[in-house]
Design a protein that fits this description.
The complex is a heterodimer.
Chain A lengths: L1 H21 L3 H36 L2 E3 L5 E3 L3 H8 L1 H34 L4 H9 L6 H11 L7 H8 L12 H28 L4 H9 L4 H12 L1 H15 L4 H7 L8 H11 L3 H28 L4
Antiparallel strand pairs in A: 1-2
Chain B lengths: L14 H5 L1 H32 L4 H4 L14 H9 L2 H33 L4 H10 L9 H9 L13 H8 L2 H12 L3 H9 L4 H12 L1 H17 L2 H6 L8 H8 L5 H36 L1
Helix pairs in contact in B: 2-15, 4-15, 5-8, 5-9, 5-12, 9-12, 10-11, 12-15
The chains are: A mainly alpha, B mainly alpha.
Chain lengths: 315, 297
């Protein structure tokens, strides 16, 4: 940015002239603050309405019961007792936990190794980058319906068609066990989301200095040792950040179970259960209480991440 | 981001290793395996979608499925377009995305500028309150946010089924404000002081000095704003209940009941076309913008 540097020099001369004018009187200070807040006004109103106030309201609502007329009554911890005694609560957490776990195995490891391999390729790099990013651009619901169709349990589905073609036994996919159904959702989620993660990893891999690999090779490190002792430590910051973002993101999974399995096979996630409490059963109190529980878990994860990263001296 | 034609720095595998016969064979094996694998994983589903939309109602449930449709029925696409009112869904979504972009560019840029350069008293406290909302995902507070949008405090207006229900909450994007503020912080204050000496007010300074320098970050924020609206599902599902105002995601979801499978698949293909075309045109900007934004964020 050459223009900045040129103007920078001019500005330095002007700074002296500007300084006395900035020794502000009270009225000038007031005007500066008023202007500042005028610029902030739009964003502050939007945050107040759609972030800060709902946040407080969520906590308040979790201790209240709302009847159909809209009148509220304080009930203490009864909403929390209600959701804990609901079998759906534990089932939803089990599904969400399993989803997060599978997403760590597939959604976390697959993009990283894809990026490591792609970074070694000398040809057609934009072809790979383009393809891996293509699903990210699809409307998520359209992609989810597409995959629901692929998972058709009889032989007309794409996946069973492929298995049939290879003379392998076909699978019931979404309608078989709970574990496999969740795995199906994770596979879809990985497919549609990995493009963004791969690009982030590729960018951070390209910033690794080549001398490190050179030195490791001279020291006799093989391929795996070079990955483990050079690639991973050099990308550790972005790896741990993506890990945290991914855990927090997958714990909020909603679209996949809502569109693909439609709560069949006990695949209701926590956010989906909040939705059901609120909009199917009109039980606002329980929905808010479950929201608060999820919030505590998520803030716990984020807080734990910040604590760990500050302890290891990272940013 | 390093373009393909720049001189490459050394990566995991050295060029010397690759130039050996064994290395070269291995490289090309891996390369072609990946070429085929990527096509199978990322392109074939799209092919299956487009051809699935051409199949007849009988052929689409046939076992085993056909790779090439026996008889192409382009009429599926016509009825998907007409019955599902896809044109309106797409236009709605584009309007929501552009509106959200406009509101964010005005309000979030102004806020970031105030935080970075005007620095009013308690500005940092307000900024902290905004950043704290990053910890609170919108899905978790969807219910109270919905109730607020249904009846705004004091005035009791309902934003449901109006574009405002999408536009205004999109402004509450702490991440975009943060990205903008960090970029504005890197602009030397002397530059702004010089403008002040020349008699420019804060608005004039923002418009003539800060914004022209900030074009890269404005591009990143614009992509984030548009993509967020395009991909969102839970929020528009709650606030857009009228079929005539829905987004592509919500409309497809509503449509999926009581529509023949082959027409639904055709509808999915049509709904995916605008973004994929948009992506192919702007792919360079989108991909470099997204990685730059997330690396710095």
């Amino acid at each position: 940015m050459a223009t900045i540097n040129v103007t920078h020099a001019v500005a330095r001369d002007l700074k002296a002239a500007a300084r006395p004018a900035r020794r502000a009187s009270f009225g000038r200070k007031l005007r500066r603050n008023a202007t500042g807040y005028l610029f902030l006004l739009g964003a502050v109103i939007c945050f107040a309405l759609f972030s800060w106030y709902p946040m407080i309201r969520e906590v308040i609502m979790s201790f209240q019961v709302t009847n159909f007329a809209g009148a509220t009554r304080w009930v203490g911890l009864r909403n929390y007792q209600h959701i804990i005694s609901d079998p759906d609560f534990w089932s939803a957490w089990r599904t969400t936990g399993l989803f997060t776990l599978f997403a760590l195995v597939f959604g976390y490891a697959v993009p990283f190794f894809t990026a490591v391999v792609l970074n070694e390729l000398r040809h057609a790099r934009s072809y790979f980058r383009l393809l891996v990013y293509l699903p990210v651009m699809m409307p998520p619901v359209a992609a989810a319906f597409l995959w629901r169709w692929f998972y058709t349990p009889d032989d007309s589905g794409l996946f069973n068609g492929v298995l049939h073609f290879l003379h392998l036994p076909t699978v019931q996919w979404l309608q078989s066990s709970h574990t496999l159904a969740v795995l199906c959702l994770v596979l879809f989620s990985t497919w549609i989301n990995m493009g963004g993660t791969v690009l982030v990893y590729l960018a951070s891999l390209q910033s690794i200095p080549g001398e490190l690999y050179e030195a490791a090779e001279i020291d006799g490190a093989g391929l795996w040792r070079r990955i483990w002792h050079v690639t991973v430590p050099q990308t550790r910051l972005i790896l741990s950040l993506m890990l945290m973002l991914q855990i927090v993101g997958t714990m909020q999974v909603f679209t996949e179970p809502y569109v693909i399995t439609g709560a069949s096979n006990n695949t209701t996630s926590v956010v989906y259960l909040i939705y059901q409490y609120a909009f199917n059963f009109n039980n606002y109190g329980s929905a808010a209480a479950l929201g608060c529980v999820l919030l505590l878990v998520l803030v716990g994860f984020a807080g734990g991440y910040l604590w760990l990263s500050s302890r290891t001296g990272e940013e | 981001m390093a373009a393909a034609n720049e001189p490459r720095t050394r990566t995991l595998v050295s060029q010397v290793q690759l130039d050996r016969p064994v290395g070269r064979t291995l490289y090309w094996t891996v390369f072609w395996t990946l070429m085929v694998l990527f096509a199978a994983v990322f392109l074939f589903p799209l092919y299956w979608m487009v051809t699935g939309g051409l199949k007849s109602a009988r052929e689409i449930v046939q076992t085993p499925p056909t790779v090439v449709p026996h008889h192409a029925h382009p009429s599926n696409y016509v009825s998907a377009w007409n019955d599902a009112d896809l044109g309106r869904l797409i236009v709605n979504t584009v309007l929501y995305a552009l509106g959200a972009l406009g509101f964010q560019l005005v309000f979030d840029v102004a806020a970031a500028y105030a935080f970075s350069k005007l620095r009013p008293v308690f500005g940092n406290a307000v900024l902290f309150a905004m950043l704290a909302s990053l910890m609170i995902p919108t899905t978790v507070i969807a219910l109270p946010t919905y109730l607020t949008a249904n009846s705004l405090p004091f005035v009791h207006w309902s934003l449901l089924n109006t574009p405002w229900a999408i536009w205004l909450p999109s402004v509450a994007s702490a991440f975009n404000i943060f990205l903008l503020k960090r970029f504005f912080d890197s602009i030397p204050s002397e530059l702004l002081a010089a403008a002040a000496v020349d008699g420019a007010g804060p608005l004039r300074t923002l418009w003539s000095i800060v914004l022209p320098i900030s074009r890269p970050i404005l591009g990143v924020v614009s992509i984030f704003a548009v993509v967020a609206v395009w991909k969102d599902f839970l929020w528009p599902l709650l606030v857009l209940t009228d079929t005539s105002v829905q987004t592509v995601n919500v409309g497809l979801n509503q449509l999926s009941v009581g529509i023949p499978q082959n027409v639904l698949i055709a509808a999915l293909a049509i709904a995916s076309v605008p973004t994929i075309v948009f992506f192919l045109i702007f792919q360079r900007n989108i991909m470099s913008g997204l990685t730059a934004g997330s690396m710095k964020g």
